[in-house]
Queue: 2 jobs
Job 1
Amino acid sequence: MYRMTARDQQPATLLAMPSTALKAAMTDVCTRIANTTVTKAKVGTLIWVVGDRIPVYGIPQLSMMGVRSSDMARTPDIRTRAIVPNWCLTFVVEFESQQMNPQTLANLAAHAGIKMGIGDGRQEKGALNYGSFLVCDKADQAFQSIVATGGYEAQAAAMANPGFYDDESAELFDWWQASVKQSGRQEQIRKRAA
């Protein structure tokens, strides 16, 4: 999970997304759009997403999923992630205006949101359906609602006392807590976290 850094003066959110993720989505989607003259290499050199980290609004939840590792034995593992079911962000793109126009940029962003996504488990990877986004106006009611309720304070509270994304996550967390208590490793984990 990415966070806003100490360099950010009074950040609007605790959570962040690297600007490179947005640029990658917009450049990589060029290979998936039929009948286009816009190429990945061309877009990659003509656009710049401003900033290092982009504030992400929304309430994080704890997601725990059973997965199989890629080793020969396909060892089972539990992946623990922060997931933000309803999220939004705004980002600024600077571009070479002689070779690209705002409408082309908006189209790239819209296609990137549907076909690529951003973050872990994004649409581009194929297995999961997370990270997809729609391009909207800042006056959009859903956008305004997420910004109003999913800022820094709400995110910090959710990180201190996380809710669960689904029942499986809650069950896995309870199992993990019980196994830590049973093994006597609770104090070791507390020390490591501090």
Job 2
Amino acid sequence: MLLDVLAVAGGVALAAAAISLRVVKQYERGLVFRFGRVLDQVRGPGLAMIVPIMDRLRKVNMQIVTMAVPAQEGITRDNVTVKVDAVVYFRVVDPVRAIVSVEDYPFAVSQVAQTSLRSIIGKSDLDDLLTNRERLNQGLELMLDNPAVEWGIHIDRVEIKDVALPETMKRSMSRQAEAEREGAPASSPPRASCRPPIGWHRQRPRWPTRPARCSCDCSRPSCRWLPRRTRRSCCPSRSSCCGSWRTTRL
């Protein structure tokens, strides 16, 4: 009878030990919630002992997380619509704040990265997005690091991955590159020559830019404002004017 009681007690003790033991991996940290309140002591890797029914163990991954930011569409400072995507590398440095301060820290980092990326697009020119990405990466990292510090998260690196241009701009850039390879100017309209055409002084205009006047420079209104085609009616009588049938050239 005594042996049976001892066997039952040993079985219950083994079952309680099995329930209270937890394994924390090398890249994890364990948070113990006792009746809903987190304990100050963070459990390291190895075996972690908790009190059954009273305690709950929450494991937090301390590895660097690689998160792809979806492509964000925005208008640059020089009024060009582009789509930009990026990659964010972050890790948890304070597991207590990462679990207690924010509900879902990966989702929070993703949303902050998307809004910060749209803000960077609106503050930058197209040339900066294409050529000066290192400075934009540093600015984006600072924008992400400010709220992430309060969540116990450290932003290791932010990289702008790709910049997608509109199709019309791609076609114009390809035409410009082809024109440069051929040695011609990049699809610019022909410039008007400042020199007059050959034989311009021999060409007679269809209609003068201003009315012709008689060579006599008389004061009759009909002589002053009649066009060249009706110049013979300018001085109808030779006695009323100087008797000249010629008109001045414009």
